[in-house]
Write a structure and sequence with these properties.
Elements (H helix, E strand, L loop, with lengths): L20 H13 L7 H17 L3 E5 L8 E5 L10 E7 L16 E3 L2 E3 L3 H21 L5 E6 L10 H8 L2 E6 L9 E5 L1 E10 L3 E2 L10 H13 L9 E9 L5 E2 L2 E10 L2 H12 L9 E10 L6 H16 L6 E4 L5 H6 L4 E2 L6 E2 L7 E3 L3 H14 L5
Parallel strand pairs: 3-6, 3-7, 7-16, 8-15
Antiparallel strand pairs: 1-2, 2-6, 4-5, 5-18, 9-13, 9-14, 10-12, 11-13, 17-18
Helix pairs in contact: 1-3, 3-9, 7-9
Bound molecules: zinc ion.
């Protein structure tokens, strides 16, 4: 006779046994072999074509949106919905672009498996997540959902989603929940809060002069920029969660010329809206000491802070309860990395992020997923899609 503990306490409609992991991994390899740097619109759009056909074959409806600003196309994948139904949706957010340049797969990060680890460019951030979302939607549509599901796949997330932001916000306006299939963190944790991301491009203008003949006529843009960098980075405050990083600096035209121009690229991470306004206000108020130097600044908040709301907390609790039935102990965490979930959370849509594959090494040549995370987390997502309703 079977002891009770030998039977799974499974009352969920979808279990990991419903997932054909072998077929998913074969498909994922194809997606990773099609390299998709954000800057190559044609390459990203080719994979969008492939994913559109794949989702169609899975019985899901698709809609294409043209990319703008020289980025690739966007794809919306939908579960079937009742004719004329006017109900809120579940919005899933994903991206197919990666930070990796063409050729990365040939040398620095070949597609290879080492035990449970499957390596490849963009596999963890986040082609595995896109595939998991499509599979979860296929299973959820078969089981039946209370709410229609829209999966929006964008092509420019890694550069701040300038082309896709209007589509994200338009779909978010009709969404009861937003689920982001960005990768999981630190042993399968999902993301319940993200810092806001700010970006500034700053040009410091001085005056050129011959360094030997008329040095006093010059106004060094590099020296003024160096002083500005120290002033900017003095805004760093780890205790308050504020980070200010000068990521690049370039300037000058030659060794023997007082430099007339110097350019900086600045990255900001800000925990909440009030802090963001404070820090950005301080940066915009910075002035050169020398009246012959000018600062030209462009930029601001690219992604608003994603703080956890009460509804967001309730969504997390509900997801954790489903995960527990699958034998997964789900933990939430906050991160400094931004995602498209920042946009939906800022619009007041309860948002959960990091629901994609577990693994590590995003944006590095060590990028990999944990193969063992695919089936359980796809089942988790599918059950979440089945269970969510507006009253949740
Ligand atoms: Zn990502």
């Amino acid at each position: 006779m079977l002891a009770p503990k030998d039977r799974m306490p499974m009352t969920l409609p979808i279990t990991p046994d419903h997932i054909d992991l072998h077929a998913m991994l074969a498909e994922l390899r194809l997606w990773v072999e099609m390299e998709t740097p954000s800057q190559d619109a044609a390459a990203v759009t080719r994979l969008v074509d492939h994913v559109e056909a794949y989702a169609g074959a899975a019985g899901l409806a698709t809609e294409r949106l043209a990319g703008t600003l020289s980025y690739g196309d966007l794809l919306i994948v939908r579960t079937p919905r009742a004719e004329g139904a006017n109900t809120k949706s579940i919005l899933i957010l994903a991206h197919l672009d990666t930070v990796h340049a063409h050729g990365t797969i040939n040398e620095k990060l070949p597609l290879r498996q080492d035990g449970d680890r499957l390596y490849g460019p963009g596999i963890y951030d986040m082609k595995a997540g896109v595939l998991m979302a499509v599979e979860a939607m296929r299973l959820a549509a078969q089981a039946g959902t209370h709410l229609p599901v829209d999966l929006l796949i964008v092509s420019d997330e890694e550069v701040g989603s300038p082309s896709s932001r209007p589509a994200i916000e338009r779909l978010a306006a009709d969404a009861a929940y937003a689920l982001v299939v960005e990768p999981a963190r630190d042993g399968g944790k999902i993301v319940t809060a993200r810092k806001g991301v700010g970006m500034f491009d700053i040009t410091v203008r001085g005056r050129a002069a011959h360094a030997g003949v008329r040095p006093l006529d010059g106004r060094s843009a590099i020296r003024a920029a160096a002083q500005l960098v120290l002033q900017l980075e003095a805004l760093n405050d780890p205790a308050r969660g504020i980070t200010v990083t000068t990521g690049t600096i370039e300037g000058g035209t030659g060794r023997n010329t007082v430099p007339a121009e110097c350019r900086l690229q600045l990255d900001l991470r800000l925990p909440d809206a009030a802090t963001a306004a404070e820090v950005i206000g301080k940066i915009e108020a910075m002035q050169p000491e020398d009246p012959d130097i000018r600062f030209e600044m462009s930029g601001g908040l690219n992604r608003p802070p994603f703080a956890q709301s009460g509804e967001g907390r309730a969504l997390f609790d509900r997801t954790a309860a489903i995960a527990a039935k699958l034998g997964i102990t789900l933990e939430g965490m906050a991160t400094g990395g931004g995602s498209d979930g920042n946009f939906t959370a800022a619009l007041g849509v309860p948002t959960l992020d990091g629901l994609g594959a577990d693994g590590a090494g995003a944006h590095t040549f060590e990028e990999h997923i944990l193969v063992s995370s695919i089936a359980p987390r796809t089942a988790l997502l599918a059950n979440l899609l089945v269970s969510l309703d507006v009253g949740a």
